[in-house]
């Protein structure tokens, strides 16, 4: 049995509440079990210098965890004067994942920054941030389209992510913290709504894994992402 009591292929309850921030062009609060992430998207009529004049837009992301998002207080990274390596790695992952679902030429020379702030962590924060970040991005792009600032929809497909792993020899979908911390194999799977793969992060955390086991986890991930995409579509409908 899983510590959570869920079936091996059962997701945690997922909810996405939109319009939770007054000033952001797009925002949502995504809850995946006890993991809660606040996501916002901000539009700027500028792009980074390295693509200026290209006619293409840019989507980037920032990520952070509040001090009491975990069981004991974390020190704010701002007090140390720099971001930790984990934070930098995760926000780069979020940015490149979201860009994989964007036609940057159709977006035009403007930047959308997606901010993901973890209010409460119980495993899978980067996956929830990507999934909720796409909802915030979709809402921001809807405003651009409504205003007539873009001619065609620059979003190619939904982007969602889910964790899978091997715990006590069994493949599991959507690991919470107790499962993730004890998993022999841990993986994050980022897919588009049309089924195209964006990124897979897998590592042996205490046990190696076979190609067949990886295929099992991939099947679980596709099941989980399909449910997340359905939740995204309902949220922005």
From TrEMBL:
Q: Which family does it belong to?
A: Belongs to the RNase PH family.
- Span of domain Exoribonuclease phosphorolytic: 10-140, 159-223
Organism expressing this protein natively = Citreimonas salinaria
Q: What is its EC number?
A: 2.7.7.56
* Gene name for this UniProt entry: rph
Q: Show the NCBIfam families listed in the entry.
A: RNasePH (TIGR01966)
Q: Which Gene3D superfamilies match?
A: GHMP Kinase, N-terminal domain (3.30.230.70)
Q: Say yes or no: keyword tRNA-binding present.
A: yes
Q: Which InterPro entries does the record match to this protein?
A: ExoRNase_PH_dom1, ExoRNase_PH_dom2, ExoRNase_PH_dom2_sf, PNPase/RNase_PH_dom_sf, Ribosomal_Su5_D2-typ_SF, RNase_PH, RNase_PH_bac-type, RNase_PH_CS
* Protein name stated in the entry: Ribonuclease PH
Q: Which UniProt keywords apply?
A: Nucleotidyltransferase, RNA-binding, rRNA processing, Transferase, tRNA processing, tRNA-binding
Q: Which CDD domains match?
A: RNase_PH_bact
Its catalytic activity? tRNA(n+1) + phosphate = tRNA(n) + a ribonucleoside 5'-diphosphate
**Self-association state and partner proteins as the record states:** Homohexameric ring arranged as a trimer of dimers.
User: Its Gene Ontology molecular function terms?
Assistant: 3'-5'-RNA exonuclease activity; tRNA binding; tRNA nucleotidyltransferase activity
């Amino acid at each position: 049995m899983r510590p959570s009591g869920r079936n091996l292929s059962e997701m945690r309850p997922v909810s996405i509440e939109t319009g939770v921030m007054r000033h952001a062009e797009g925002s949502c609060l995504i809850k995946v079990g006890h993991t809660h992430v606040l996501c916002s998207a901000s539009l700027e009529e500028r792009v980074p210098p390295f693509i200026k004049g290209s006619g293409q837009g840019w989507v980037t992301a920032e990520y952070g965890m509040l001090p009491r998002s975990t069981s004991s207080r974390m020190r704010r990274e701002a007090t140390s004067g720099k971001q930790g390596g984990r934070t930098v790695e995760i926000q780069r992952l979020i940015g490149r994942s979201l860009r994989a679902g964007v036609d940057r030429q159709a977006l035009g020379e403007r930047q959308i920054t997606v901010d993901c702030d973890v209010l409460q962590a119980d495993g899978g924060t980067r996956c929830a941030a990507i999934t909720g970040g796409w909802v915030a991005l979709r809402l921001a792009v809807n405003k651009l389209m409504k205003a007539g600032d873009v001619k065609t929809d620059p979003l190619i497909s939904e982007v969602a992510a889910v964790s899978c792993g091997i715990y006590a020899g069994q493949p599991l979908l959507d690991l919470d913290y107790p499962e993730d911390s004890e998993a022999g194999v841990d993986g994050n799977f980022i897919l588009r709504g049309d089924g195209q793969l964006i990124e897979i992060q897998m590592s042996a955390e205490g046990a190696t894994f076979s190609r067949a086991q990886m295929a099992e986890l991939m099947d679980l991930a596709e099941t989980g992402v399909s449910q997340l995409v359905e939740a995204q579509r309902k949220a922005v409908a």
